[in-house]
Amino acid sequence: MPELPEVETIKNSLEPRVVGRTFTGVKIDDTRPLQNLKSAEFRRRLIGKTILSLKRRGKYMIFILSGGDNLIIHLRMTGALLWNPEGEEPFARIEFSFDDGGRLLYTDIRRFGTMWLVSDASTVTGKLGIEPLDNSFTPGYLAGILDSRPTPVKSLLLNQERIAGIGNMYADEALFHAGIHPLRPGNSLDKAEIKRLHSGIRQVLKKGIRNRGASIRNYRCPDGQTGTAHEEFAVAHREGQSCPRCGGKIARMVVGQRGTYYCPRCQPLKNNSKGR
DNA sequence: CATTGTCCCTGGAAGC
DNA sequence: TGCTTCCAGGGACAAT
Q1: Stretch A180-189: mean pLDDT
Q2: Which fold has domain A139-262?
Q3: Which of A3, A6, A8, A95 is catalytic?
Q4: Chain C, protein-covered positions (CB within 7 A)
Q5: What percent of chain A has pLDDT over 70?
């Protein structure tokens, strides 16, 4: 499932391959991803445009084009962007071709993925919260997100309008890193815990990027290879395995309709609101 | 307004 | 073995 580190990896991988290239063709086998345009208009506005640069915002990939348009793609659960794939790709939905013969294939098993072609990117990404790897994301900023909210801390981390890019896997990893139970009310965290969570968020995201993302299910890099971040996960998708810190058994529960992995011993649920 | 629940979708796992 | 049922989950939207 592409979260911030996976989308960042895709961006880094595609950047040297597509920047400067001009769209020559768009083959649309599934119109479902197209959110704001019909196929013909989408194709017409794309062909002849050159990719000037790539950006990531939260879990969104943004292709900045000549002429002022932005191609924005969200891969949701099972979407992938493959560069010059070899052989037949199953679940191919949309194929972009370029003036140098290169091909960018959008595949998506479950068809949750979405894309837009808009002149103003903020119509799509405008409501997103802070980028957790920006310098402006400080422990104090995180405190503001958590403060006076009794909502489980994990649910707050997953709210894209507060912090953009953290998904289910990295939320679990960050909470483990900080030694915080996923159900702790956001407003019950003390200053030291917020600091640990802040550093946990940044560390697990950066580590995810270094490892080219986590291939828990269907995620692949544009070169078709899998990432290795999941091999270094402490708790995410590791129910029943040993906690790397205490050796105890990793447990699974449901928080906000999402499968949640944690170490009950390292992340105790105490009702502790001292100091706040 | 904030929060919770439902839905979308399909391969793979689990159950019978 | 083979069929059926259930599950995963980001985010839009509806309901509370």
Answers
A1: 94
A2: Helicase, Ruva Protein; domain 3 (1.10.8)
A3: A3
A4: 7-11
A5: 97
Catalytic site residue from A49, A56, A59, A238: A59
Name the residue with tokens 């390292």: A266
CA of A140, C1' of B13: distance in angstroms: 44
Which superfamily does A4-125 belong to?
Answer: MutM-like, N-terminal (3.20.190.10)
In the predicted structure, residue A276 carries a pLDDT above the cut 60: no
Match 């896997």 to its residue by tokens.
A169
- Distance in angstroms, CA of A90 to C1' of B11? 12
Query: What are A247's two structure tokens?
Result: 């050796």
**Are A229 and A214 in contact, with CB atoms under 8 Å apart?**
yes
A178/A59 Cα distance (integer angstroms): 23
In degrees and rounded to multiples of 5, residue A259 shows phi and psi of -60, 130
On chain B, which bases lie within 7 A of the protein's CB atoms? 2-11
Q: Which residues touch strand C (CB under 7 A)?
A: A 1, 3, 58-59, 74, 76-78, 110, 112, 158, 160, 167-169, 237, 257-259
Can you say whether the dihedral through the CA atoms of A196, A199, A202, A203 is positive or negative?
negative
**Which one-letter amino acid corresponds to residue A87?**
G
Reading the block at residue A136, the tokens are 């402006």
What is the C-alpha to C-alpha distance for residues A67 and A100, in angstroms, rounded to an integer? 20
Quick one: which H or E segment has residue A84?
none
pLDDT tier for residue A223 given thresholds of 50, 70 and 90: confident
In whole angstroms, give the CA distance from residue A81 to residue A95: 10
Domain ranges of chain A: 4-125, 139-262
